[in-house]
Structures are given as structure tokens and as C-alpha cells.
Amino acid sequence: MSKQVGQDAALQVATPKRTKEIIARHGFSFKKSLGQNFLIDQNILDKIVAAAELNKTKGALEIGPGIGALTQKLADAAKVVTAVEIDNRLIPILSEVLEGQSHVEVVHGDVLKLDLRALMERRYADTTGVSVVANLPYYVTTPILMKLLEERLPLEHIVVMIQKEVAERMAARPGGKTYGSLSVAVQYYCEPELVCTVPHTVFIPQPNVDSAVIKLSLRSAPPVQVSDEAFFFRVVQGSFAQRRKTLSNNLGALVGKEHREALQQLLSGCGVDPGRRGETLSLEEFARISEALLESGLVAQIN
Ligand code: SAM
Asked: How many CA atoms within 13 Å lie on the side-chain side of 53?
């Protein structure tokens, strides 16, 4: 008979005792370089899964299942689960923990190199929506999230545990110290919501930083219209190049000294004081400046 993981609390791996038992029995040693910090707290796992709004018609894509703590919960909550794990030493452990769960597939690979669109087409055709749900490896949090967003994968939500400070930057509003190009990039694609903060004590081994769960709900369309996205993001990045400098100075570096005056006029024409700093600008203001700069030809277009 297959194991009914969700119905038998004794089989849940996310307890200190079970996690230690599994890693000892398999002779597993943690690799810091792969961001391996395994969750050992059922309540936090339940909060992550609840935030993803899954049901038995939905699909879940997990990145970095580890020994399967979150995967077990996703298997209970979703119709189809795919878990992508880079470390081949974890594959036999996952097979054991997830035994009998035919709707769960573990894919061995580096998520940054996988064709996720093809994987989604193969796995989730019979679902009514897919969300990414993961306790991400912190050394590659931003590249993974930017891949998911920039590839415009058909996702409903991305619910991830990440470093608290990075979660705060993603959800920051204009005017705050943590607002920057990452906030603008994430908010261009999603509506962010901080779900909860998580102390470092609920992991084995314990990371050096505190964590947070963030929920990113994908927008059906960006909140601002820009005619060249790459150019828009270049302007945003340029505006934050040196945080303490004004827009006039930071964007001045993009347009060149000889065009400083034209830049000041352009910013004023957009209703933005050239003396402001990038950290005070809304997405709408960045979009306005980007469109005006593009039209002016002051910054060469990006192909
Ligand atoms: N989900 C498990 C949990 O919550 O206990 C483990 C989370 S642990 C923070 C991150 C996991 O991501 C590890 O299992 C690690 O091996 C895996 N990982 C690291 N880099 C990866 C990559 N590029 N692609 C896929 N998995 C990766």
C-alpha cells in the first residue's frame, strides 16, 4: 500500500528528529555552497502552502526540495507537483520520502538551466493554474526569481522563503531606504505581499540571517506602459547607480556631460525635479522618464 504521507504526522520529515534521522541514515552532509538549510517547522510550512492558494485542481512547482519537507505538504494540497533539485545525493532520499505519490515528480537539474516553459507544458496541462512554492537557496534567489518573471511563465503566484532583507527590498515602496531597482523590477511583474518573517532557528543547519516568506502575485499586465522594457530597466538601474546622488547626476552619466542641460529640461518636462533621488520615484515616474528619454534619443536604444 502506498504511504499516505499527509495523513500520518509521524511520516512528516519537517521535525528536528525525523530530519536528523534521515540525513544520518543516508550519510548526507550539507553543502553550504548550495544554500542547503532545511526547514524543521510544520507551522511555517503550513503558512507557505496556505499562501499559495492551492487546491486539487492546481499545480505546484518547487525549486530545491531538499529532503522533501515542503514537497510532502504540496503533495497533499495540489493536483500535480514538480520539484527541481540540483543535488543528486538528495534524489534517493526524495524517492523514499515521496514514495507512492504518483502526482509528484522530482526533476534532477539546475533550475537556472532548465527549460521551465517546456517543463510546465509537459506537467501542468490538466491543471487550472500553477504556482511556484519554495524555500529558495539564498545564494541564487534573485537570478531564480528574475528568470521566472522575465520568461513570463504562466504562473499565478510565487510564494518563496528568502532572506528577510531581500524580501523587504522586493516589497518596498518609493521613499524608503530599501526601495531600489529590485523593487521596481519585481513590482513591474507582480504585486508583492510579505507573508511572515521566520527566525533562523527553524532550519537545520541554521543560516546566519533571518528569513521571510514573500508572496508575489503575477500581474496580467504591467502597471505602466513602456515601449522598450530593456530600455526602461536600464533607466531604472541608472537612476539607482549611486544611491546618494540625484537623478540628474545618475542619469547624467547615461546621457553624457554635453547633454546635462537637455536632461534637466526633460526631467522637468516629465514633472520630476532633477534634484530628486531615484529612491523617491514611482513606477509611473520611471516610465514617463524612460519614454521621454527614448523619444529624445539622448540615450542610445538597446537592441
Ligand atoms: N525545500 C527544502 C526545505 O525547505 O527544507 C530545502 C530548501 S534549501 C534552502 C534549498 C535547496 O535548493 C537545497 O536542497 C539545494 O540543494 C537546492 N538547490 C540549490 N541550488 C539549486 C539550483 N540551482 N537548482 C535547483 N535546486 C537547487
From this structure: 12
Cα–Cα distances in angstroms (integers) from residue 231 to residues 69, 122, 138, in the given order: 41, 34, 28
Which burial class, exposed, middle or buried, applies to 143 when counting CB atoms under 10 A from its CB (0-12, 13-18, 19+)? exposed
Cα separation, 292 vs 269, in Å, equals 9
- For the CA of 62, the closest atom of ligand 1 is 1
- The residue count of the chain comes to 303
Q: Determine the angle formed by the axes of helices 283-296 and 260-269, rounding to 10 degrees.
A: 130
> Probe ligand 1: pick from 36, 39, 107, 210, max atoms within 8 Å of CB?
36
Structural domains of the chain sorted by starting position, each given as residue range(s) with its CATH number in brackets: 9-218 (3.40.50.150), 229-302 (1.10.8.100)
What pTM did the predictor assign?
Answer: 0.94
Helix (H, G, I), strand (E, B), or coil: what is residue 197?
strand
Q: Residues 42-76: pLDDT tens digits?
A: 999 999 999 999 999 999 999 999 999 999 999 99
Q: Which three cell numbers stand for residue 48?
A: 507557505
Summarised one tens digit per residue, pLDDT across range 249-288 is 999 988 888 898 999 999 999 999 999 999 999 999 999 9
* pLDDT tens readout for residues 77-136: 999 999 999 999 999 999 999 999 999 999 999 999 999 999 999 999 999 999 999 999
| pLDDT, position 8 | 54
Bond into 92 cis (ω within 30)? no
Please report, rounded to a whole number, the percentage of residues in the chain having pLDDT higher than 90. Answer: 90
> Given ligand 1 and candidates 63, 82, 88, 148, which is best to mutate, with the most ligand atoms within 8 Å of its CB?
63
Spell out which residues line ligand 1, taking CB within 6 angstroms.
34-39, 63-66, 69-70, 84-87, 90, 110-112, 135, 137, 140
